[in-house]
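hey all, quick one before standup. I had two proteins in the batch that finished overnight and I want to keep them in one place so we stop losing track of which output belongs to which input. First protein below, input sequence then structure tokens straight from the run.
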Amino acid sequence: MKGKMEKLHNICMVSDFFYPNTGGVESHIYQLSQCLIQRGHKVIVLTHAYSQRNGIRHLTNGLKVYYLPIGPFYNQCVLPTLFTSLPIVRNILIREQISIVHGHSAFSALAHEAMIHAKTMGLKTMFTDHSLFGFADLSSIITNHILQISLADAHHVICVSHTSRENTVLRASLNPSGVSVIPNAVDSSMFTPDPSKRNPKRITIVVISRLVYRKGMDLLAGLMPIICQRHPDVDFLIGM
């Protein structure tokens, strides 16, 4: 119907990865929350405590962040216990009158636990998978089994690329029709290159990523010498 008002929601973003930690997932959650707030939705963030930072903090545009009194166990993730986080997560979801719980990152134990708790409360759940994972190593096997459980009846799943979508569908045994692709974007209002500084005689390949194995840096390191040898006019610009 023309002029129909958009239904507003109370949304809870959940992940072990958020500020003051830095990374792609952290930035994604913050920017997405700000965009949703601008559209009139209420958004809160649940994450674990970071050193002395615990309790409630308020960020730009009234974004409320709950730093739960749970410390990280390994690789910035909490120890997956399921029932330990139930009382406090349930209390927050009821207090904030949350209607949608949106988990981020397959590595985040807190995101999976919050989604499971939300489903027992009859809330809608979503999940965004930000990375590619394997199938054979121990870490991937455990993560994939947890993913199958937490996404078994999730209302929708989002991936950041078509390759990531295929990877997630296989790892979590999902119906592909319930998985969408929303690529990561560059905010042109904050990042505007100056074309006049471009060298017309050179080709510059820009890579912006953390220099870690699961981001494919081993492939990049092997590929760069081959490209430079075959094409002397190519330069690589790497940003972290």
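OK second protein, same deal, sequence then tokens:
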Amino acid sequence: NIQQSLHESWEIASQASHQMNDAPIDMVQADAFDDLLLKRAVTDAGQWAYGAVIVEVWVMNTNHTKLFRPDSGWFMDPIVHRGCEGYCNLCRLTNPKHPDYLDPVPLSPGVGLPGILWNESITNTRFRRTVSSTMHDSRNKDIGIHGQVTNRAKNITAGKCRVAWRDIEYLALDPDQPPNRRLKGLVEAGLGWGAGISFDIGDRQGIVVFMTRKCAHVKKLRTLDNEAYLISASNLIGSAWSLRGPRHRVIMERRRQRCVLLRRIRAKLLSQLRSGVTIEEIIL
């Protein structure tokens, strides 16, 4: 019985070893723990961010060609959505059972709200340096994201602010933007302002998109405390996502070490049994 048990343990260890050797090195595995960790980080960010109705995390694929949203990478304020029977405009963004569901398909940089904010985040440092000295003209009008004068604050930013807020409706109506149904769906759902905070942790990159109601108070969005929270929460979300690869690699390494240990134990036991030593003597 003991020898049969050792043989079964050896077979299990061998199968696990072959599976680990066949697995691609750069494959990002995920389990329930990873999904729950990401969901909790995104939910906590949305619960305490001022005016936030929807929060999403979009991550860059390994080829750096597409942004995609993980299944657990979104949050919607339940208070704003209370009383809904599942067929409102917000449900179009979050409920796959909605007849006109706007699926969050992977986006190229520059397409849709996440893609637009992603492109802007790449040059965000240069943008802040340029705009900080030319924030208002002599008529005290707002300066837009590309420096143009606008009568309404299409983009909210300030010299000390680190988060650029964009008018979602303005982006949806911009003829220079690639057409995107989901971007128009955000406007139809009553979302007014959007901001994206990118992260680059380890070998994982992405952006956390905060979308607020249209009537959100601009000054409260721009407070240093609120923006500091958005940035810190985004870093936490990025850490939760980037943990997946290293976590599963060390799990596989621990399992590999266990397989090696089982091989050594099996070889040692078989050697002792062949030399005439009984199991009782080995145990004692």
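Flagging for whoever picks this up: The beta strands are 52-60, 67-68, 74-76, 142-143, 149-150, 155-156, 165-167, 191-201, 204-213. The chain is about 45% helix and 15% strand.
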